[in-house]
From TrEMBL:
This is Pyruvate dehydrogenase (Acetyl-transferring) E1 component subunit alpha. InterPro entries: Alpha-ketoacid_DH_E1_comp, DH_E1, PdhA/BkdA, THDP-binding. It comes from the Bacteria. The gene is pdhA. GO terms for biological process: branched-chain amino acid catabolic process. SUPFAM superfamilies: Thiamin diphosphate-binding fold (THDP-binding). Gene3D superfamilies: 3.40.50.970. Its cofactor is thiamine diphosphate. Keywords: Oxidoreductase, Pyruvate, Thiamine pyrophosphate. It comes from Cryobacterium cheniae.
Length: 388
């Protein structure tokens, strides 16, 4: 018997409607779109709204600083606030976040100061914050590598029998990487307490989703690994929070990993060095502006009478204060000590490295002003703690 392969692959199945609790117009979604989800309480929604507004103002400010030449590069998350803020809000204080280079607003929402977030983007440090203090791994630039790190930590948590959950943020392009496959498979086999949240902003730099994969949704891939997968409206923070919170608690209860796909859109360029007009239609931007996550929640909260004009003004003032603080910290020159090249290289100092450090220190001292004490030679000592 011959199998008619062409009839099976003639066209991909139509994508399902994403789960959502608040629709594009700011009204409660009908039950058939909610998939059994329950709207978070008004206080939680107001908190999510405040965090999104503050995060967007930070993002816009940093993009402006980059265009002024204050930062080398910056990947904006404008339009993706619902995914990132919901993810952070769903985590407990002892849980770990594994972000990508685009997830700066997630770091901000979890309490990392702007100056420390932006240290890597201005070329000061690979990671400008104490990872252990904030329970946030370094922002990963290579695609999907942080997914493996998240699974490793989550597996260790399970072996130690503690309640720590790891959540990693990925983009749609990252799910095409072998590292993502290994992370999904290992997590499912070992039932690691990890949540994979894919922000499907529909472009891997310039490559659209339909040129990356043929499946209906990224969430559909979960069935092949043997874990739950959820396709969610990534611009509905209420739905994203409800699904992510449930996934985190399931992981904490020993029920294994979850794959969540948040359907969203990257409103800005990939980075300031990118020209998105070369590969996407400006008309798509207009469509997604009408699906704005902040406007949507603002409308809903206003309709149910729990968000006043006074509170909106208070949130805007908080956001402007943060923007001013961000501008101020980026006008200060970062201290530069070339001898830091030799720090954190080896746990146990090597003689050859010490010799190189002494040579550089002597050369710097020869050309330094008498008052410059930052480059005086000293022994290399083993340093511990978080990577700055």
């Amino acid at each position: 018997m011959s199998l008619n392969v062409e009839s099976l692959v003639e066209s991909p199945l139509a994508a399902p409607r994403p789960l959502r609790l608040i629709d594009d117009t700011g009204r409660a979604a009908p039950p058939d779109e909610a998939g059994g989800l329950t709207l978070p309480d008004p206080d939680t929604l107001r908190s999510l709204y405040r965090r999104m507004v503050v995060a967007r103002r930070f993002d816009v400010q940093v993009t402006a600083l980059t265009r002024q030449g204050r930062l080398a590069t910056y990947p904006s998350a404008l339009g993706q606030e619902a995914c990132e803020i919901a993810a952070v809000a769903a985590l407990g204080a002892d849980d770990w976040l594994f972000p990508t280079y685009r997830d700066s607003i997630a770091l901000l929402t979890r309490g990392v100061p702007p100056e420390q977030i932006l240290a890597s983007f201005r070329g000061d440090w690979h990671s400008g914050y104490d990872q252990n203090a904030h329970r946030i791994a370094a922002q990963a630039t290579p695609l999907a590598t942080q997914a493996l790190h998240a699974v490793g930590l989550a597996t260790a948590s399970k072996l130690k029998r503690d309640s720590t959950v790891a959540l990693t943020l990925l983009g749609d392009g990252a799910t095409s990487e072998g590292d993502a496959h290994e992370a999904f498979n290992f997590a499912a086999v070992w039932q690691a307490p990890v949540v994979f949240l894919v922000q499907n902003n529909q472009f891997a730099i310039s490559v659209p989703l339909d040129k990356q994969m043929r499946c209906r949704t990224i969430a559909d891939k979960a069935i092949g690994y043997g874990m739950p997968g959820y396709f969610v409206d990534g611009n509905d923070v209420a739905a994203m929070y409800a699904v992510t919170s449930a996934a985190v608690e399931n992981a904490r209860a020993g029920l294994g990993p979850t794959l969540i796909e948040g359907l969203t859109y990257r409103m800005e360029a990939h980075t300031n060095s990118d020209d998105p007009s070369r590969y996407r239609d400006a008309g798509d931007l207009e469509i997604w502006r009408r699906r704005d996550p902040i406007t949507r929640l603002d409308t809903y909260l206003g309709e149910i009478g729990v968000l006043s004009d006074a509170e909106r003004a208070d949130i805007r003032a908080e956001a402007e204060d943060l923007a001013a603080d961000t501008r101020e910290c980026m006008t200060r020159s970062a201290p530069v000590d070339p001898l830091e090249l030799f720090d954190h290289v080896y746990a146990t100092p090597r003689a050859a490295l010490a010799e190189q450090r002494a040579f550089l220190a002597a050369e710097l001292a020869e050309h330094a002003a008498p008052s410059d004490a930052s480059t005086t030679a000293g022994p290399i000592t083993a340093q511990t703690g978080g990577t700055r």
